[in-house]
Amino acid sequence: MPRSPRKMTITKLCLLALLLSGCTAQAGTGGQPSAGPAPQQECQESQQPISRTLSTGANWSMCWSVDPMLGLVLSDIHFSPTPAESIPIISRMSLAQLEVPYDSGSRITSDITSAGFGGPNMQSISDAECPAERLSATIPNVGDGTKFGKSPVREVLCSQETQSELSFRSGDLGQVVAKQRQDWQLSTISKVGWYEYVNQVTFGAEGSIRPTLGATGDLSPVDYSDAEHGWAVGPGDHDHATNHSHNAVWKIDWELGGETGQRVEQFDATDTGEQGEFSPIVNGSLTAISHPATAQWADRRWWRVLAPGTLNADQHPISYQIDMGKSDGFTFVDDAEHHGDNVGYDVAFTNADECHVFATLNRGRCGRGVLDYVEQGKNVPLDDVVSWVAVGYHHVPRDEDQSPMEMHWQGFNLMPRDLTSTRIDAPQDRPTFNGKPAEWDGQMPAE
To answer: Among candidates 350, 354, 333, which has minimal Cα distance to 389?
Structure first.
């Protein structure tokens, strides 16, 4: 399958570095090299490098750009738990569709493919939206700027550190150790119609990634219906702002362990119906997803993308867990029209293909959207994994939405699983904790 020139260049550089330094690749599928010293971030001409070192001492580095349709695109994302190592995580990630169908059936928009989150819809930001670092990019007014219109340089990316929640606390050894969590947020604002969307990705100091989409702006003044399809706003029970959904899909092209060699597994914890001595018995199991497929969220279910050939210090394959939490399930109207009802998915997995751009309404030889990508590639084993993560939000308006609306969010978590053998910022005397303690000197917790 076709690969981007950037990823091919990285591979050649890594191989050259291995030859010059005498390093060895860990055994595994594809013989991919293990994590090495943090590289100098190199970006394509249309991209800009950006990096940040957080409270754990870990560093995130990547390239960013603005696509006329997709909006914010992050690529070549690396995580460095220590200054001596850099782990490639994601080749490229972005939104791939935002569909907004109204419950009355009177309107539907596909905001990424019909309007786009870049170009003139990408908003300039000021101190009011971003009281932190603001970065500029060339934003074409028409298309990609190569043929028509002007391409002004505008401040569009907000880069901000946040510290707002507890990362850990433990008092089992007689002394309380605790630490606040620090995150790094990258965000842009796109205005499509009456809505204004904050496309935000939060990078945690412990290696987590949280893509989210926030919606604000104003309720559509032309979308009012009745009590069955909307909610009364304003005086009396006359004007019902129509309920609607925000159906978003993110595309994540993984680079764990290298360009290829990734695998996918689904975890389920199932109640056996049996009772143990003190509690019900629940069995946990992993099921391999070996070929392109779609999957539905269920209680106590998550997925992981792993690199079997790249191991942490405990000899466990590094991986990232896709944690959906709970969301409002949905089926794309476009998918239903072309594939029938009940074809919705929460996560889909395909192999990378440059023709796979949008989750729906895609153009080109490779199909109309994710369901076509899965169907056409179902006989090819997963090797260069792309995750398509769908998160729905059903918006029932309220009086407080006028005006402007309070921000409402939807998103998911990408959590490191065995990326490192222990936590990165273990407090003093805790780095020796790894595995089942041979002797436990602490007191048992009170029941």
So the answer is: 350
The domain spans of the chain are: 5-417
- Is residue 238 within 8 A of residue 357, CB to CB? The reply is no
Distance CA 408, CA 429 (A): 42
| Digit-coded pLDDT (tens) for 263-316 | 999 999 998 988 888 888 889 999 999 999 999 999 889 999 999 999 999 999
Distance between CA atoms of 336 and 352, rounded to whole angstroms? 24
At 268, list the tokens. 């389920």
- The CA-based dihedral angle spanning residues 180, 182, 188, 190, taken in that order and rounded to the nearest 10 degrees: -30
Query: Residue 118 in contact with residue 352, Cβ under 8 Å?
Result: no
The fourth-level CATH superfamily of domain 5-417 is Copper amine oxidase, catalytic domain (2.70.98.20)
Measured on CA atoms in the order 266, 269, 274, 276, is the torsion positive or negative?
positive
Q: H/E/C letters for each residue in 291-314?
A: CCEEECCCCCEEEEEEEEEEECCC
362-397: pLDDT as tens digits: 998 999 999 999 999 999 999 999 999 999 999 999
- Give the integer Cα–Cα distance in Å for 209 and 54: 14
- Of 96, 49, 61, nearest to 203 (Cα)? 61
Place of tokens 């779609």: 294
Residue type, 296: Q
Taking CB atoms within 8 Å and a gap of at least 24, the contacts of 324-328 are 324/297, 324/389, 324/391, 324/412, 325/412, 325/413, 326/297, 327/297, 327/391, 327/392, 327/393, 327/410, 327/412, 328/245, 328/392, 328/393, 328/394
Task: Supply the pTM of this predicted model.
Answer: 0.86
Residue 217 region, left (φ>0) first, then alpha (ψ -120 to 50), else beta? left
Closest CA to 90 of 344, 322, 332: 322
Amino acid at 41: Q
